[in-house]
User: Fold this.
Amino acid sequence: MSAIIIDGKEIARRVREDSAARTRTLRASGVEPCLAVVLVGEDPASVSYVTGKEKALAEAAMVGRDLRLPASTSETELIDLIGALNADPAVHGILVQLPLPKHIREDRVIMAIDPAKDVDGFHPVSVGNMVIGTPGFLPCTPHGVIVMLKELKIPTDGAHAVVVGRSNIVGKPLANLLARRDVNATVTVCHTGTRNLAEHTRRADILIAAAGRPRLLTGDMVKPGAAVIDVGVNRVEDASAKKGYRLVGDVDFASASEVASYITPVPGGVGPMTIAMLLRNVVEAAELRSAGAERTIR
Ligand code: GUN
Assistant:
């Protein structure tokens, strides 16, 4: 058997078109949806992500405010900048690219962002809203995975979803969203402490790889007919590649695609969905503010 390769770019394009249309409506009433993107330092992967986000904002006719700070920026300076962005009525969303340099505490920085502008969905208030099911911004990558499953009509009701990874950005929120009533999956979370990982992954109807370990999941760990969603983005050295590295996921694509029913490629799978959901959150933040309804986010 050979899996259907999920075209994340195409699904993301549809989501982005919707955001672009909503942006046109806002612009017609004089509101320019604006995301402030804060990058501290010059980590190459982060620079590349931020550049991609800014390009997508421009394509959707949104305003990207590009704030690049030196790696030597102090935690206080960064928190002061966030305070200024919180107070700026032209800014609808704030994104601080992670990871931050070691001397800056990420939790302090995330907590400084006004939850009404937390389009990443990382603030504890946003996380609490997600868990309880009250309105708030959902984190982009996990939400993108859910939208992808729905768009492809992959059955989730009563399905067994196995999430490999427990990060705050992907694994934990995804496990939460999969267990919500509208998705209704039975969820297993695996992590570095899991004994006999393959025993769990082989029972997954929906297998989600978010461990940050290149090619961790091989075909023999996949149940025949499972949908395999690969959230991993790993740079591995490759002398034959122009840049000297290649991007690979957490799934060994060659062997897993022989067994799965659906599989996402890396790149071109989940990645484009993350950006599409970010744009949607920015439009939503602008709509809520222009309707004077920002309190519903809190
Ligand atoms: N670093 C890796 N993924 C993300 C993300 O979705 N948002 C932010 N802010 N930083 C990240």
User: Anything to note?
Assistant: The chain is about 40% helix and 15% strand. The pocket of guanine is lined by residues 95-98, 120, 140-141, 169, 274 (CB under 6 Å). The first strand starts at residue 4 and ends at 5. The CA atoms of residues 137 and 152 lie 23 Å apart.
